[in-house]
Amino acid sequence: MKHGHGGWTMKDFMDGKESYHKCSWESIKTQFATGDYVIIALGTNDTSQISAYNKNPEKGYSAEQFKNWYKEIAADVKAKGAHLIVLTPPAAAYTVKDGKFIGTDEWAATQALFELRDEVDGITVIDMGNTLADQLNEYIDNQTYTLEDMVVQQEDGKAVGPGAIFVDTVHFSEEGAMLMAKLIVEQIEASSTGLEEYIVRK
């Protein structure tokens, strides 16, 4: 069952914010049972909220609150005898240093998820920040694409078209989305969660 869509924060997800997508953890947690796998990827939009909180506690929310929401999810998943897999935010078009992509290790949400992995038993956290960055850097090294090919195309400092992998600073082209799906499957295959037994290669 797929419930994912872009644009939400963890707070939106936990609050059940009304939008063109009516999904929330409250509704999703009734739809899985013992032995099921729950895969969640939130954090790209949360980092800005955590940064806002760090500058002014009256805005956004803290990294601790972000973790606590995930701990609530983990408790619900565990109570049903299901398995929780969490994906960290992937590399973005602007996570670049010295002409190469870098992961999202320095993002507040990613750091919180790494802490969550150490604090809560039974959670598998998959590092998509470095996984995607490594693959994109391999493209550069083997000349599949240049860095400029992959990100948004610009002329005179203005965006004029999508790149091969990114259509803006964080969102993927169709090729980028297919690459992400492939990398997630590969990481699950290597995760020893038990879900790898259900992956079928054609």
Give a written overview of the molecule.
This protein has 202 residues and is of the alpha/beta class. 41% of the residues lie in helices and 12% in strands. It is built from eight helices and seven strands. A three-stranded parallel beta sheet has the order 1-2-5, with helices on both faces. Strands 3-4 form a two-stranded antiparallel sheet. The longest helix has 17 residues, at 63-79.
Number-wise, the strands total 7
* Secondary-structure element string: HHEHHEEEHEHHEEH
Low-confidence stretches: none
- Radius of gyration using CA atoms only: 18 Å
Q: How many angstroms does the end-to-end distance come to?
A: 21 Å
Strand order of the largest sheet: 1-2-5
Sheet with the most strands, sense and barrel status: 3 strands, parallel
Strand percentage lies at 5-15%
Helix count equals 8
Rounded average pLDDT? 90
The outline comes out as: globular
Helical proportion, percent range: 40-55%
Structural class: alpha/beta
